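Inputs:
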Amino acid sequence: MINLLVSGVLILMVVSGCGWNGNPTRNDYVTPLTAIKIAAASSNLAVNTTTTLTATGNFSGLFARDVTSQVVWSSTSPDVAAFMTSASPNRVTGIKAGTAILVATVGSVSSTYTLTVRSDSVTSITISPTTSSLPKGLTLQYSATGHFSDNTTQDLTADATWASSALAVATVGNAAGNKGFVTAVTAGDTNITATFGVVTATQPLTVTVPVLQSIAVLPANPSRLTLSTVPFTATGTYSDASTVDLTSQVAWNSSNTAVASFSSATATTATQGTTTISAALSGITGSTTLKATGGNLASITVNPYVVTLVKDTVSRITATGTFSDGSIRDITGVVSWSPADTSIATVLMPGGNLAWLQALVAGQTVISASSGSVTPATVTLTVTAPSVSSIAIVPTTLDLTVGTGSRFVVTGYFSDGTSQDVTASCDWSSDNLAAATVSKTGSTIGRVSGVAASPAQVTISAKYGGLTATAQVTVNARTLKDLAISGSTAVNAGNQIKFTATATYSDSSTVDVTESTLWAIDSPNVAILADIQNQLGQVVAVDKGTATLTASFNGIVKTATITVN
Amino acid sequence: MNRICQIIIVGCLPLILCAPAGAQHVGPYAGAFVGGSSLADARGSDDKGDVRLTFDPGFAGSAVLGWDFEAGNPVGEGRVELEYTRRSNPLKKVEFVEGSRAGGGSVTADSLLLNAFGVFHDSGRWAPYVGGGLGAARVEATDMKASGQPFVSGSAIVFAYQLGIGVDVALTEHLNLDLGYRFFGSIAPNFTEVGGRKLAVDYFSHNVVLGLRVGF
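Outputs:
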């Protein structure tokens, strides 16, 4: 019984929505036309001039509709007034002085209009507007008004003969439907004339340089994380359809500076929210909306926060931000690093999320990492100056597959009994660059890459403090069989996640090739690569949606769909 | 009170006098139904746009031939039947962009469906059922007018379907009273406008029917 009730309710729910509730879009073609009303621009014409008629149909008193295009026009006195223009069937021409009955017929319904033709002659013509300049690419509609001997006036735009003295400067239409329509072609001077009979009016016209018509701001409607930079461009379109990069010329503005502010054409986001980005020049403005996501910075942590370094060595430091929406991501490249004593240490910022703490002279100092009004995080640094006793490299031997890489670590042992990772402070070299190379700078310093198979071992050397440590690398060619991506594909906006790429070879061996893979992502409004140089495989979620992460390694391409909540 | 409500109430009155039947019928049966049909507001579409057609309620009449399954059948308790139904609804008005026009004429659907119903028997006198049917219908626009002028005409055979719920009352072992609701729909049939254009018109109707089924 319950099943029946449920089934019945479901049926009723489904069918209760049936029945069209849209709006009609079809005109009534059934209700009969019962009357026609004729209107004209003028009920009397001078000889050899014209006027147009319009016909409005009354459909059984229920509605009215323009039926001009359906009307068959005729004149009871075609020697007085006649419909002579096939391209404009509703235009009547005055032939000779007198009265004519004009007839509009649609099917069996007719209506009449009385037209008077007078014999007065044109004494002068006035062209309007009196605009004397027009930017290149723009258009203007002139009209001609005839002044008659009986002191009346009549629109002669469609009856005059129009001409431009310099067609290369500006053209003017002289055909039915476009009479008096001027197009500015190129900078220069011309005279626009309207002639009726023997009477001519002249309007000088100067075509000027093209004027700015619109500005397009790109990227359009971007979503970006807080504490990130967004470079914008402005492209102006001119009246002649030409486009110009105006990025450095426009005045950039953010309507909500708490969300983002500008330095030149680059906006820096601060707090979560939206702001209107505008670019203005010469009274023309283009705009777009920038959405800052990922919460507001709540706290900063640094790693390491206590460090001892030997003089003239470097160590990598990172800053991680925790945001108001609970998201966590690397902000190393965003914070301001400030050593209290710059003679003891400095912070090197090669770019991206890479920061090196460089120990200069013995002593102790504090380095703060700050951003806005958030409490800075600090690194307490002690710089010592022992002499190096020995250095050791790990691993000492390495079996490397062509196309992949691996990192070495060099540890220095000092006269004061301490030891320190000095990998980033070594001078690295390979004795066979054709087989294997070793990175000498950046976050990959000390990483060896297999270039080509070599029967002989390659010697990788790391020099520090006058000492040298070496490792032997064998580079082998293996047949790549597959590539796999792993990592969390569902993430909340503002968080940073790691993906790894693992290559499988024909001998069933697997290698982490995350740092040898080319990573790409297709929707920057949804997710971005954290740092394509220093944090390979890491993705930061920006805003709700889905994005496709692509990993390409030695001809194999794999994708993963990332969903940002 | 509208006509359909009156029909439902009159049709239900005999139920008060009926006594519950004993054994359940198994085997062939035939039946006849009458009822009301309410055609939902329909969209009529041609290449120039859409109009709305509104219909008045009308009558529906059916004849069925079917088979009652026995209780405990592995297929399930219920019945299958072949149903012929005729529904007719007058056109009340046609709405264009410019407004509504008085309608005229009617639309009639003759349908042939194969139905299957699941019946829920218990010890009580009532046996509710639910089910549906598939088949075809010939839908005809008869002398349809707008503003007193010829509007559309023609007919089409289209795929049709229905959903139904209702209740059986076993008057005797071989005689059942059936009160049901049917939602009937079809693929939009194409009619011909007075100017020659084709007009596709939605067809969805709500039906309340009362009938008798006699088992053999």
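Remarks. The first strand of chain A starts at residue 35 and ends at 40. DSSP finds one helix and 59 strands in chain A.
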